[in-house]
């Protein structure tokens, strides 16, 4: 009896578990479906990227002689959801069971489990740590901290290890990083790819079917197959990795990419494997082509943060995205959808997101995320925004970054402190403030940077929770030393700003 082998849009790896299980007579099922394309209103470039990559991947499998039943979005027989397509294909091919690789989202894991056909969900072993390994690591720990997990992953992979010791004698070189960046005309941007006929057909489809989703569809310049993704990797290793470390926390308003790799779309869709990306970085270090602090910082993001976030998502369970530890209920303001704002940092971070479906980590954390947290925005709305607007967004990685790291809505599972800052941090790490209508040096008054007002207001509102936090508790000393009239003025002006935000007035 034929079996169906399910390959989802973010499982485009030749050695994904379900494909390794293929036997003669099996039918590989791939489907562009509205259920996946609309569970949030994804950025049009994200839909186009995945559909083009899916079509090309299917073509490669067919070229190997495998049988692929591929459904395009506009196929009149399309059942428009993964379960309905599996049932339709099972009837068509007389298949009685489905082999899948476990999806990266609880919603789909459950949908497959509920299918009225036997479904085997194989572990997704494209990740370094299995669920069991992460659970084992997490059990009996009072706090789950990425740094300890990361060291285990270094030992496990042998990456940047000299025997049982870390290369250079330290696990983490972040103290050499965190430098601001300067405008640099010679900095190499990631390679751009002109759409080929397959991609152009998909772009036309997306333009017709998703005209109202937030974000520009064209120009579209992402790679959509493994060969292109490998080109992006090679380019990053040759031109940007060496400077990655020092500038990884920097922001420049006219440079959306700096020395970031822009590899997350390819890693998350399966076109590149985390191991090969890290091996390439480690090899460049071993060859003396890049500094250790850059290679280490980059590898940590992948075998540390990326794996840790996935571990948390599966450890915490399906209700994680509903957490709201700080009881925040404000609606996401229209500026997140491109409504004009005088706040230059937000205006640029959102415009860049609209144009590229991309922002780098520190923009996501310290601009859009920081503002949402300071303003007390409902974390579920924030979560949906991030899931919608970024090309690399899948719940397993997006939710722990947003609900956990950025919004502290999980009460401290991911991070030991909330990532909040006044305008001072943004000014130090970027060139946004120079071009802003607000004054970053002003703590109160008409022109005061809203981050300055909201920072203290946030800390004052959440004093009970954070005053005893070992990482930020000390800041309350500064607040307490402030003149009470000044404290009142800050809080009044913060309240007035938030009232304008709620009223939909320009801010
Ligand atoms: P680089 O800076 O070049 O880093 C290299 C790689 O490290 C990335 O490609 C990524 O795979 C990995 N990485 C770095 N930081 C993280 C992290 N915190 N968690 C997981 N992986 C990491 N990343 C996603 O892949 N999808 C998301 O939906 C996503 N949402 C985020 C939301 C918020 C609020 C924050 C603060 C971070 C989010 N991240 C997400 C993490 C990070 O911002 C992106 O991985 C990174 O910006 C992708 O760009 P890059 O490939 O140029 O990364
Ligand atoms: C994100 C996405 C989109 C937009 N469309 C599809 C699709 O049509 N077919 C498909 O198989 N997968 C798609 N995906 C990726 C899935 O949403 C993803 O597999 C789950 O969210 C689990 O990570
Ligand atoms: Fe952003 Fe404040 Fe700087 Fe303006 S002054 S760019 S609002 S941090």
Can I get a quick summary?
This protein has helices spanning 17-20, 34-37, 44-63, 82-93, 106-113, 131-138, 146-157, 197-209, 226-239, 241-247, 264-269, 274-286, 292-316, 344-356, 361-375, 379-389, 395-406, 423-429, 450-461, 463-466, 475-481, 484-503, and strands spanning 3-6, 27-31, 68-71, 97-101, 119-122, 161-162, 165-166. By secondary structure, it is mainly α. The strands form 2 sheets. It has a 5-stranded parallel β-sheet, sandwiched between helices. Strands 6-7 form a two-stranded antiparallel ribbon.
Question: Overview of this structure, please?
Answer:
With 507 residues, this protein is mainly α. It has three domains: 3-122, Rossmann fold, CATH 3.40.50.620; 131-190 and 240-316, Serine Threonine Protein Phosphatase 5, Tetratricopeptide repeat (Alpha Horseshoe), CATH 1.25.40; 334-503, DNA Cyclobutane Dipyrimidine Photolyase, subunit A, domain 3 (Orthogonal Bundle), CATH 1.10.579.10. It has 22 helices and seven strands. It has helices spanning 17-20, 34-37, 44-63, 82-93, 106-113, 131-138, 146-157, 197-209, 226-239, 241-247, 264-269, 274-286, 292-316, 344-356, 361-375, 379-389, 395-406, 423-429, 450-461, 463-466, 475-481, 484-503, and strands spanning 3-6, 27-31, 68-71, 97-101, 119-122, 161-162, 165-166. A five-stranded parallel sheet has the order 3-2-1-4-5, with helices on both faces. Helix 5 links the parallel strand 4 and strand 5 (119-122). It is globular and about 80 Å long. The termini are far apart. Residues 343-345, 423, 426-427, 432-433, 436, 438, 440, 449-451 line the site of iron/sulfur cluster (SF4). Pfam families: DPRP. This is Cryptochrome/photolyase family protein. It comes from Paracoccus nototheniae.
């Amino acid at each position: 009896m034929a079996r169906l082998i399910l390959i989802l849009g973010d499982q485009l790896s030749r050695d994904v578990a379900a494909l390794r299980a293929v036997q003669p007579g099996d039918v590989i099922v791939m489907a562009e479906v509205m259920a996946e394309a609309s569970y949030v209103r994804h950025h049009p470039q994200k839909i186009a990227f995945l559909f083009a990559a899916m079509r090309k991947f299917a073509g490669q499998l067919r070229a190997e002689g495998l049988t692929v039943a591929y459904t395009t979005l506009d196929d009149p027989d399309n059942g428009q959801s993964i379960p309905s397509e599996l049932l339709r294909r099972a009837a068509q091919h007389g298949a009685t069971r489905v082999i899948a690789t476990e999806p990266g989202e609880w919603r789909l894991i459950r949908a497959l489990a509920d299918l009225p056909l036997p479904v085997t969900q194989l572990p997704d072993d494209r990740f370094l740590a299995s669920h069991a390994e992460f659970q084992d690591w997490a059990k009996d720990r009072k706090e789950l901290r990425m740094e300890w997990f990361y060291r285990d992953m270094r030992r496990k992979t042998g990456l940047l290890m000299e025997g049982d010791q870390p290369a250079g004698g330290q696990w983490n070189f972040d103290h050499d990083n965190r430098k601001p960046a300067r405008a640099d005309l010679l900095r190499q941007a990631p390679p751009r790819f002109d759409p080929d006929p397959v991609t152009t057909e998909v772009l036309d489809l997306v333009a017709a079917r998703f005209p109202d989703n937030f974000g520009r569809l064209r120009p579209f310049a992402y790679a959509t197959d493994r060969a292109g993704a490998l080109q992006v990797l090679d380019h990053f290793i040759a031109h940007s990795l060496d400077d990655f470390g020092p500038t990884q926390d920097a922001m420049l308003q006219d440079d959306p990419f700096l020395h970031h790799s822009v590899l997350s779309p390819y890693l998350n869709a399966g076109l590149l494997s985390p191991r090969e990306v890290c091996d390439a970085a480690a090899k460049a270090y071993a060859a003396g082509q890049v500094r250790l602090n850059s290679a280490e910082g980059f590898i940590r993001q992948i075998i540390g943060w990326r794996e840790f976030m996935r571990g948390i998502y599966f450890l915490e369970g399906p209700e994680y995205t509903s957490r709201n530890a700080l009881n925040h209920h404000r609606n996401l303001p229209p500026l997140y959808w491109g409504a004009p704002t005088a706040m230059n940092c937000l205006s640029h971070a959102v415009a860049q997101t609209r144009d590229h479906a991309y922002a780098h980590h520190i923009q996501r954390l310290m601009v859009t995320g920081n503002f949402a947290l300071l303003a007390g925005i409902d974390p579920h709305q924030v979560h949906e925004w991030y899931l919608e607007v970024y090309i690399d967004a899948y719940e397993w990685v997006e939710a722990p970054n947003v609900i956990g790291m950025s919004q502290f809505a999980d009460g401290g599972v991911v991070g030991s402190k909330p990532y909040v800052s006044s305008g001072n941090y943004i000014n130090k790490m970027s060139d946004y403030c120079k071009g802003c209508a607000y004054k970053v040096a002003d703590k109160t008054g008409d022109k005061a940077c809203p981050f300055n007002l909201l920072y203290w207001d946030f800390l004052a509102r959440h004093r009970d929770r954070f005053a005893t936090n070992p990482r930020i508790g000390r800041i309350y000393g500064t607040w307490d030393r402030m003149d009470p009239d000044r404290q009142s003025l800050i809080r009044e002006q913060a309240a007035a700003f938030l009232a304008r935000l709620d009223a939909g007035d320009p801010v």
